[in-house]
Structures are given as C-alpha cells and as structure tokens.
Design brief:
Elements: H1 3-6, E1 9-14, E2 30-31, E3 34-35, H2 36-46, E4 52-56, H3 60-66, E5 73-76, H4 84-95, E6 102-107, H5 115-123, E7 131-136, E8 139-147, H6 151-157, H7 165-170, E9 175-179
Parallel strand pairs: 1-4, 1-6, 4-5, 7-9
Antiparallel strand pairs: 2-3, 6-8, 7-8
Length: about 200
C-alpha cells in the first residue's frame, strides 16, 4: 500500500434530521447498541481511512455527547436542512488543504454497507482523478470515492438531496463501478418501516 493510498480520507454524511422518522436524527439511531454515526465512522476506519471527517447537523450537540468519535474531525453543517448536497459541500470543503487525494463517502443511514464494500471501493483508487462507485447488480450506489480533482465540480453541482449524483451522471464514462452486492445491502433507513433493519 502506498503512502498516498493511506491518505484517502473517509467522509461520513450524518447531518440529516430524519423528517420521515418523526424528527429523529439518523446519526443517533441505535445499531448494535451504538449510534449509527459511530458505526459509519468505524466502517471507514476499518476500511483503511486514517483520517475520517464526520458532517453533523441536526442535534449536533447531542451527537457529540452520545457518539464515540474520538480521532474524527467533526464538521458542522449549519445548512443541513437544505439537504445532503450541503453536507457533501461542507465535508469536501473541510478536506480541502489536508492533502487528501480522495474522499471515500459513506451515508450514515446505510448500516448494511460495511467494511468489505468500503474497502473494495477504496482499493479502486488510482489518483486524484479517480471516481469510483459501489454497484449493486450494476446499479450505482454507495459508498463512492471522489478524487480531489473533482471536488470543485462536485461542490458546484451538489444541491438539495442529490449530493454527487448529478456530477457522477455527467461523468459516467469516468466512473469505475465496483460490484458490492455480494458483501453489502444498500438499503436506507428513511421510514419507520426501515427501522426493522437495525440490530
């Protein structure tokens, strides 16, 4: 493993307020006895990301109190109510100047996406121009790896709840798909019914 590969940063998007969950922030939902945000940060660390930035929004103070996020850089997104795009922008902005050549982005509400999938996507990193996405039966999903050469373009196009979707679609020919359907389940925790996925 090269020194540069070591520097691929992890980025957890964990700012949402859980509107469809009665206003319960997803970061604080419990999975295996700990908050989801703690689980997501642990996945990125175990996948080899030494630097992990976590974007917080809804009830950020409570998340800081309840989740064990030692060693992570906690990034506040005051515009979290505008959607995931604002959190992606805040996260990538926080990584600017760190020397990280890429960011491995994981959503806090996908606990079925674990270390194996994150490590596979990270392993497909080549250089700052890399764009890599997990795929599930050929369909693009998370996590995604965004090379630093693309960050300016991504932040310019990340609006609402779209995140990097529009940018990745516009650069589809440059995206490396890494099949992860055999090691991960890409469900989201969006509604009360989805809570049954949590252990």
């Amino acid at each position: 493993m090269t020194r540069t590969e070591h520097e691929v940063a992890g980025l957890v998007l964990a700012a949402g307020g859980g509107r469809r969950l009665g206003g319960r922030p997803k970061a604080l939902l419990e999975h295996r006895g700990r908050p989801l945000v703690e689980h997501a940060a642990g996945v990125l660390r175990a996948a080899g990301c030494e630097r992990v930035h976590v974007v917080l929004g809804a009830r950020a103070g409570e998340v800081r109190e309840r989740a064990r996020l030692e060693g992570c850089v906690l990034v506040d997104n005051p515009e979290w109510e505008r959607g995931m795009g604002s959190s992606l922008r805040a996260g990538l902005d926080s990584l600017a100047g760190t020397g990280a050549p890429a960011a491995l982005v994981l959503l806090v509400d996908q606990p079925g996406v674990g270390v194996e999938a994150a490590a596979r996507v990270r392993a497909a990193y080549r250089d700052e121009t890399s764009l890599v996405s997990a795929a599930y039966e050929g369909t693009r999903g998370h996590p995604v790896l965004l090379g630093a050469a693309h960050w300016a373009g991504i932040t310019a196009s990340a609006t609402g709840d779209r995140g990097a979707r529009a940018y990745l679609r516009a650069h589809e020919e440059s995206v490396t798909l890494v099949e992860c359907g055999d090691v991960a389940r890409p469900y989201d925790i969006d509604t009360e019914a989805d809570l049954g996925h949590l252990d």
